[in-house]
Amino acid sequence: MLTFSPVSVSFFIMALFTIGGGLGVVTTRNLVHAALFLVLSLFGIAGLYVLLEAPYLAVIQVLVYVGAISILITITVMVTRRLMGIEETYNRQWPIAAIISGLLGAGLIALVVAQFGALTPVADVPVDNIEQLGRAFVTHQGFLLPFEVASVLLLAAMIGSIVISRDV
Amino acid sequence: MSDFVIFLIDALVKSLIIVVSLLTGFAYTTVLERRVIARIQVRIGPNRAGPFGLLQPVSEGLKLFFKEDIVPNEADKVIFTLAPVITAVPALIVLAVVPLGSEVTIPFLNYTTSLGLSDINVGVLYILAVTSISVYGITLAGWASANKYAMLGGLRSAAQMISYELALGVSLLVPVSLAGSLSLGAIINAQDPVWFVFYPIVGQVAAAIFYIAILAETNRAPFDLPEAEQELTAGYHTEYSGMKFAAFFMAEYMKMIAVSAIFASLFLGGYRLFGLEDLLGGWMGPLILAGKVVASLVFMIWLRATLPRFRYDRLMSFGWKVLLPVSLVTLVLTWVVIVLELIPVAL
Question: What ipTM score was computed for the predicted complex, to two decimals?
Answer without folding.
Answer: 0.78
